[in-house]
Specification:
By secondary structure, this protein is of the alpha+beta class. The protein has ten helices and four strands. The chain binds uridine-5'-diphosphate and magnesium ion.
């Protein structure tokens, strides 16, 4: 028997064996990629999270990452950098007339920052609540700021405040090729796909 005939015979045999088997009626399991790309809307929302220089100095980077991983978000971009005044001036453009602006730039350039892009359903809103109020005195225990900071001028972490702001901030801090699209193998248990 030639190769083609053997394949044909095998598939006919398998077809007969599966008759009457309910498993046969199920569609084949899609790959993770397919599961992901056909998932619930909003699954690919992204936000910029940055551990500020005080957070890096105090070795809180791991703790911040842990909280986002534990919550179920997906890390798609990560880097440690010494931020320039230029990038910060753009990042904090809306605050340029605030009395604390100059001090904010001084603080944000005082040491390295760890910038991250996190992805997942409702990630912008959820990460703002995980980070807590701007002023740590008002931030609830259990939030990053509520657990690790006391003064508004040293509040450990940045989180984008809207989906539009997140898009702008991500493209400011990350080049397109620094963001990694990858399929997270626990998506089928995290979401109703
Ligand atoms: N900030 C400050 N003094 C203030 C208010 C804000 O030093 O009275 C700093 C603080 O680091 C804050 C950042 O400016 O995180 C940006 O302010 P924003 O109002 O955007 O707060 P956020 O979005 O970070 O919660
Ligand atoms: Mg803000």
């Amino acid at each position: 028997m030639g190769f083609l005939q053997r394949c044909l015979a095998r598939s006919l045999l398998q077809g007969q064996r599966s008759l009457g088997n309910p498993e046969r009626l199920k569609p084949p399991l899609p790959t993770w990629g397919l599961l992901y790309s056909t998932g619930v809307p909003g699954l690919q929302e992204r936000t910029l999270i940055a551990v500020k220089p005080d957070g890096v100095q105090r070795r809180l980077v791991g703790d911040v990452i842990k909280r986002f991983e534990q919550r179920g978000f997906k890390l798609v971009g990560l880097k440690l950098l010494q931020a320039s005044e230029g990038i910060l001036a753009e990042h904090y453009h809306e605050l340029r007339r605030k009395p604390f602006y100059q001090e904010l730039l001084r603080y944000m350039t005082s040491g390295p920052v760890v910038a991250m892009v996190w992805e997942g359903y409702n990630v912008v809103k959820t990460s703002r609540s995980m980070v807590g109020e701007t002023n740590p005195a008002e931030a609830k225990p259990g939030t990053v700021r509520g657990d690790f900071s006391v003064h508004v001028s040293r509040n450990v972490v940045h989180a984008s405040d809207s989906v539009e702001t997140a898009q702008r901030e991500i493209s400011l801090w990350f080049r397109h090729d620094e963001i990694v699209d990858w399929d997270c193998c626990d998506h089928n248990v995290m979401y109703e796909l």
